Amino acid sequence: MSEKQYYIPEGTYWPIIGSIGITTLLVGFANQMHGVSWGSSVMVLGFAITVFMLFGWLGQVVNESVNGKYNAQVDRSFRWGMSWFIFSEVMFFAAFFGALFYARTLSVPWLGGADNNVFTPELWNGFSASWQQIAFSTPGTVLQSGTAISIPTELVAATGLPALNTILLLLSGVTLTFAHHALRTDNRNHVVGWLIATIALGVAFLGFQVVEYGHAYATGLKLTSGIYGSTFYMLTGFHGFHVSLGVIMLTVILFRVQKGHFSSDNHFAFEGVAWYWHFVDVVWLGLFVFVYWV
Amino acid sequence: MTTATASHDTHHGPEKGLMRWVKTTNHKDIGTLYLWFAFSMLLIGGALAMGIRMELLQPGLQLMEPQFFNQLTTMHGLIMVFGAIMPAFVGLGNWLIPMMVGAPDMALPRMNNWSFWILPFAGGLLLSTFFMEGGAPAFGWTFYAPLSTTFAPDSTDFFIFAVHLLGFSSIMGAINIIATVLNMRAPAMKLMDMPLFVWTWLITSFLLIGAMPVLAGAVTMMLTDRNFGTAFFDATGGGDPVMFQHIFWFFGHPEVYIMILPAFGVVSHIIPTFSRKPLFGYSSMVYATASIAFLSYIVWAHHMFLTGMPVAGELYFMYATMLIAVPTGVKVFNWISTMWRGSMTFETPMLWAISFVFLFTIGGFSGLMLGIAPADIQYHDTYFVVAHFHYVLVTGALWSIIAATFYWLPKWTGKMYNESLAKIHFWWAVISVNVLFFPQHFLGLAGMPRRIPDYSLQFADFNFISSIGGFAFGASFILFTYIVFDCIRNGKPATARPWEGAKGLEWTLAPKAQYHSFNTPPSRELIESESQHS
């Protein structure tokens, strides 16, 4: 076998720039949380460096790919890398789903006196262990962190916007598959059309999610609404963040399709983003069932 | 081969100057960076341990406030786990895996560079907490809520971000190793041809990718509980501090196997070499490793027997934990059977490997004792636990790292270390480490709690002995550092295969392995003749 079988990329400064960017971002964030005046500006600076790094690094990779430097082996390495990256994301969400299940089936009922905790009524007079409205007879009960608990006046319903959003995301998975199919048959106009449809569905999802948040907030469901508010906002919030990333990635892919970067048999970047989008889709199904529905 | 490829577009040699190390995409450069980083953190973490042992030399408070003592124990644990042991194994993986699977380099070299270059920043964030108002984290390396949420200093948020960064680095490192093993392996090498270090690291990578994101989730919940009013670990809002322990140990138990599986791999290379026999039970080693990895995900609550779990839970976690003894026992018997009737010699790596088998097994047995739920009521949070995990982590994980260093140092530097000094170092370390940790079993059985700077008078003698052993063990690293530097500067030239019985593709490379290991994949004949198992 020839030497050219292997490809090893040349060294770059992007990784160290990335480390500086992320560390600056986090140091700024921590100081901002502690009320230090320069916190937020350092945070913005760190964010800017990180975005600069992402553009530079990925831009270099795109250039090398377009210039034909990558062989089939590099392509396979990217595939392994992307799949296991997505798996690690799954496990990140699993931690929050785990918290949801644990609280719902164990800790909240225990607090309400299930099992053998016979003292609950005496310790916490008026405590109601209902899942969405963990409530006290005395309003203004304060968490250990010093924040007052906000008790929602309405329950979150699965019908309405969440159901609509489920349909939107599922549809976006279908349109993306159509786009992929068009790419494989070299029909670029159809690729562009279906990609735009996918992005539009993703943006619509995000828009409705903002409306939904506004509604939930108005009824008093906040991050500070006890464990339900915590899991609700952290799960849907991280999911919304991932949808936003997915929309950005799809948009980049759209531009790359228009620039003619992909051929019918060589378009890993497209597929990687598609995997990511389907992952985000599947996480939403879990959210819809366990956060909104049951 | 190096000179021939140096001019080639994609197979360049090292750059000149400092920037070589910043920009490098070379697995050997990155492995070296990892190993030196890990060694620096080992010395820092060790210095903190010396502080702990000085305070515990005598009963009473002599040197420090209890709060500072707690900072020392906490940071010692965090630095050793996340800064020393894990990066050291990633460093070994970087150096060795491409050579062992017949690849030129890692699969994703730029990401490899980033995995390393996040570490100094994360380590810096972690260490900087010592100089902040309220001091460093003082809630123990397991950072249980509410100690780490309600009652912790502001510096905890920096600690949280350091953990995020370390996790990010580990995940990228693990992805890279999976891609390397599965995609860069020489086409003629089947999975069941792979050396055990490669196998154990492959399986460890799956543990890392499964466990580290859960840790990231746990510290994210801590972050929002501390700063944004969530109630994950706050019973007032329906959360539960015990839930923190569940999430933490869902990460934490695979984590302990992350720190020991590659060690099993290292030892499985060294013992056959110096026994001049093929490894006994190669495939059972692979299956045992996979079984341990699987079991490690379903036993986490054996760290939590005293949290008031339902009895059914205690029983399940106890029996599941006991199961781990089966594959681990398979491994220990395989190592012993490999030595059985071998033509054994006792060069330094072999001394470390044999003492690993012996001392790690002590740590394994004390682990079995701790896994018995009713007995754990007595042992829990005592020095018995401290003795247990130091036997598995110091005389287990760290022992294998030192063994690996002596075993592959000739391949890394092209030179031999001073064998007689190295043997003195071994005996010094192996005696002092037992003086240090063995009495801690007795202290724990007698009821001395961990993480407390003062103790009752009846514990004075054993603590004194333990501290003396600790100082001697700490000092042994001065000699270790000298031996490594002496080897790099003045070592005699090594041959390509400095150990008579050594098998493995790495020994077919130049005495000091060339910059890119295999530009041409090794042939089936070579792979078969270099196989450690028949």
Automatic annotation (TrEMBL), chain B:
Its main location: membrane. Residues 15-525 form the Cytochrome oxidase subunit I profile domain. Pathway: Energy metabolism; oxidative phosphorylation. Keywords: Copper, Electron transport, Heme, Iron, Membrane, Metal-binding, Oxidoreductase, Respiratory chain, Translocase, Transmembrane, Transmembrane helix, Transport. It comes from hydrothermal vent metagenome. It is a multi-pass membrane protein. The chain crosses the membrane at residues 33-54, 74-97, 117-139, 159-184, 196-223, 243-267, 279-300, 316-337, 349-373, 385-409, 421-442, 462-485. InterPro entries: Cyt_c_oxase-like_su1_dom, Cyt_c_oxase-like_su1_sf, Cyt_C_Oxase_1, Cyt_c_Oxase_su1_BS, Cyt_c_oxase_su1_dom, Cyt_c_oxidase_su1_bac. This is cytochrome-c oxidase.
